[in-house]
Amino acid sequence: MKIEVCYTPELIKQFDLKGKIVVVIDVLRATSCMVAGMGSGVETIRPVSSIEACTELGAKGYIMAGERGGKKVEHFNMGNSPFEYMEDAVRGKKVATTTTNGTKAIELSADADEIIVGAFLNLSAVVNYLENKGKDIVLFCAGWKGRYNLEDSLFAGAVCNGLRNTAAFEDDATLSALFLYQSMKDDLSYYISRSNHAARLSSFGILRDIEYCAKIDEFSVVPKLLDDHLVL
Amino acid sequence: MKIEVCYTPELIKQFDLKGKIVVVIDVLRATSCMVAGMGSGVETIRPVSSIEACTELGAKGYIMAGERGGKKVEHFNMGNSPFEYMEDAVRGKKVATTTTNGTKAIELSADADEIIVGAFLNLSAVVNYLENKGKDIVLFCAGWKGRYNLEDSLFAGAVCNGLRNTAAFEDDATLSALFLYQSMKDDLSYYISRSNHAARLSSFGILRDIEYCAKIDEFSVVPKLLDDHLVL
């Protein structure tokens, strides 16, 4: 079981995803929302890349969710807050979502054998899942507009830390992610709140979201992509 | 004085280099060689991208140096070992060099106001130089074939550490490099020797080079690019 870390979508072409499990990571906030939603009874979530595709699914009965530049798309039912995904109104429903970085990372993972989504909210569940499967792993950080970001790299490091006795650490990015996590883990939410993306989001007044996305193991679900839909 | 870190040439397009000082970093071994050479009395070093360009300069009296895939180019005078750059035979001479990653990073830095080269061998000199200039800085890791690598990121972190009280740390990559360095700094040569590139180089029997490139402050020179040549 080999584990690798890809820090941004710009670098994913350097990885051979065939036969591997890809963990898509967009802590602030796409994959945190997906975990919160699937862990709170949402039936399925369909990630799509465009507002148009999301709107079309809306006409077919999906709840339309998503943001552009951190803000809710105007005619959508909800934005990209984990709290919205945990409301009664979405329980048992199908949600179509489009986000800036997370959805793109999912699309770029198409070659993988299996795509799951991870966030601090389901950290242990993800680690256990990967341990049980025993396949090679690529931890794919969605980043921000193609750039390296702190919170996704930290989560990748947290998964590495969980698998440090069972997986083979062969590449430099993986070793770095592990050390980064180990050096920040005692004050994780502080560092996440200091990240560039948290600073951007803070300007929209959603500090509550950032704090929630830094929580560990609120859910034990591992959403998995099947026929373009996230299922449990 | 703002400081940013670019982890690989694949990401350099995300940075605006205009008006900034770029520090090109290729610890194993291009920039270590440049520092060792310029610090040992080589008159000038001209980095070029191709074997052909290097051969042409050889016909004009330059000593031809460089590697491909870690090995000396067959008809060249020397390879890419810092020890070759410190020999009497190159003192006072002009050297033309072509390497896999370092030369490419220098070419991609063309928009910068100033390009200097850094390695552990001249760490404090680089930090002092940047501190005195007071300009915005991009620490540009040459990586390996476009991938993230440990030794260059660690050096970037070492520079960040040296400037932690004077420079503004605004981006996530910079904060991560700083933490990575701080968590590995007590056993730097061990971690560098564990890196992917060190493992590749070890198979060529050049452990001595790797150990030397992890040495700090052997030289106090800061080679700077001027009209395509490195000068002091």
From TrEMBL, chains A, B:
Give the first-level EC class, as a single word. hydrolase
Q: Which cofactor does it need?
A: Mg(2+)
Q: List the keywords (alphabetical).
A: Hydrolase, Magnesium
InterPro entries xrefs:
ComB-like, ComB-like_sf
Q: Which reaction does it catalyse?
A: (2R)-O-phospho-3-sulfolactate + H2O = (2R)-3-sulfolactate + phosphate
Would the keyword Magnesium turn up in this protein's UniProt record?
yes
The answer to whether the entry has keyword Lipid metabolism is: no
| A Pfam family hit | 2-ph_phosp
* Family note: Belongs to the ComB family.
The protein here is known as: Probable 2-phosphosulfolactate phosphatase
Q: Which organism is it from?
A: Roseivirga pacifica
